[in-house]
């Protein structure tokens, strides 16, 4: 199966004097339908890796390919188009425009699309809001919903372009455990429907939803856990023992 994303010997450092290596020759492959979690101590380079793989930030050495197309060295304009078409992003807290309601915020990324797609976009946004359980909040101001509801809106927005891969940096980091569980159930469904998911988390229960867990340390991927149980409790147990073995 073709990789959606292939990172080869990715290197990144910050600063000149001294130069600090943040990503140290990282190799990573994400396949269609993959669900990958990245774990590791604070500062080990997880967010930097996500930014590098998604073309959000540049790298010093190595290459990144999306479905066989090389992102590294690509012209900015083309890279922006590719990111918009292929990638969806969710963060700890979605950034929403306060003067727009939830529905309009979800529609934002596709505003540039041609006029003839307007009706399709609107029905897609509404279908996503229905699916994520926030359709009643379509007209609501973004400051008047809960954190979990706002994150669901963030997920709807990320899915508007039908991305091949969803990047998520600690998507449950700002949520209570019930809302976190709901968001993870949603991400699992989205993954089962065909979108690859690459997420960063510190939470064993969150990582336990993934198929593979990569453990990072000092800018390197040290080990990979393939979760092989279908029982929730055993999955969490597997992640917890791998965390312990990797000093997370
Ligand atoms: N723009 C920058 N300039 C200089 N150093 C940076 C920059 N961005 C990140 N770093 C450093 O790179 C290292 C890795 O940061 P990164 O944000 O990738 O860590 P992380 O694994 O995501 O941590 P956390 O779990 O706390 O989010 C850190 O030491 C950080 O201070
Ligand atoms: Mg981070």
Automatic annotation (TrEMBL):
<keyword id="KW-0813">Transport</keyword>
<keyword id="KW-0067">ATP-binding</keyword>
<comment type="similarity">
    <text>Belongs to the ABC transporter superfamily.</text>
</comment>
<dbReference type="InterPro" id="IPR017871">
    <property type="entry name" value="ABC_transporter-like_CS"/>
</dbReference>
<protein>
    <recommendedName>
        <fullName>ABC transporter domain-containing protein</fullName>
    </recommendedName>
</protein>
<feature type="domain" description="ABC transporter">
    <location>
        <begin position="5"/>
        <end position="243"/>
    </location>
</feature>
<dbReference type="InterPro" id="IPR027417">
    <property type="entry name" value="P-loop_NTPase"/>
</dbReference>
<dbReference type="Pfam" id="PF00005">
    <property type="entry name" value="ABC_tran"/>
</dbReference>
<dbReference type="InterPro" id="IPR003593">
    <property type="entry name" value="AAA+_ATPase"/>
</dbReference>
<keyword id="KW-0547">Nucleotide-binding</keyword>
<dbReference type="InterPro" id="IPR003439">
    <property type="entry name" value="ABC_transporter-like_ATP-bd"/>
</dbReference>
<dbReference type="InterPro" id="IPR017911">
    <property type="entry name" value="MacB-like_ATP-bd"/>
</dbReference>
